[in-house]
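My main concern about presentation is that the manuscript never shows what a single data entry looks like. Each protein is reduced to its one-letter sequence and a matching series of backbone shape codes. For the editor and my fellow referees, an illustration may be useful. For illustration, here is how one protein appears when written out as sequence plus structure tokens:
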Amino acid sequence: MIAGYVQCGKPKEAVELFKQMEEAGESPNEVTVVAVLAACADLGTSDLGRRIHEYLDKCGYRKNVRVCNTLIDMYIKCGCLEIARSVFDEMEERTIVSWSAMIGGLAMHGEGEEALKLFSKMTRIGIRPNAVTFVGLLHACSRMGLIAEGREFFTSMTRDYGITPELEHYGCMVDLLSRSGLLLEAHEFIKNMPIKPHGVVWGALLGGCRVHKNIELAEEAIKHLQVLDPLNDGYYVVLSNIYAEKGRWEETARVRRLMKDRGVKKTPGWSTVTVNGEVHEFVAGDGNHPEAEEIYQKWDELLTQMKPRGYIPNTKVVLLDMDGEENKVQVLYRHSEKLATTFGLMKTPPGTTIRIMKNLRVCEDCHSALKLISDIVDREIVVRDRNRFHCFKNGLCSCRDYW
């Protein structure tokens, strides 16, 4: 039943059932552990996962490769990269799944160089990569802007290992080229694919168009996305944002009307932070939390320290046609990741890492703010958004740049 809940995308129910099992006096076996660790990974909360980790050490289950692989995956998805690496390093036996999980995890956390070093070590000892390994490598190259290396890995898949690229690999290459500003090449790459591109491939091009402000190719991408993935609100929002950043409010409104006419609803943004085992969820402008007043007061205190360090609210990311700069600033100050971070600082001891899970992409203003806050409070702040992990520490982020 626990595994069934996980497979059906209901990790909260899986964890609840596991707790009921414990209360009933039943001890978990390897199968149970793998399932509940997967649920913890989906939820992005490591508290229960750490407790299970301790149980595994006591019961000797750590010799089970599948259990260890799931443990690595759980820690990676919860933003605990160092612990995941220690589990990996302590394994007596590693499979290609172990290596691929660690390579992909390093890439996801912005540790692209370490991911490539681990791949070199893997191949030196004779472990043959698989398709998943190359997804991690291509992600690493994309995050680091390593165009030549990415091209070589993509070619090497077939040439050296006989692995036929799948849609995810093509998507990674389009992402690499698009992020690097090679939008026309990325477009040609899509047109020359031997398999039909899906929404994620065109979505990667669309994301690059937003970064490099190419409206013409963005409109081309959205034509395909409206057919391939017509109910995905994210693509419409990106195009709308591209128009808004250029001040083309009529086109922005047209995209919003199109969404309404097609029944596409914008996904509300939320962020969660776990404190003492309890998950606290925030939405933008949240005033319903019982400690909302204290949270806003704490945020104002942080602002007084951020501004002398150069923080200027980036109202360009408020992609709404609203009057008054001050109104836009207030919208920025109430973004969910800022509220979750502030609450975490209030409720956890000094030096504790704050871990935030967000369902949408972190905005540019929040990215700048969290870098400053990490330095001011001398804390590590780890944010998992819909694209990747951002590890803020000493005023820096693990990513090469915001994008």
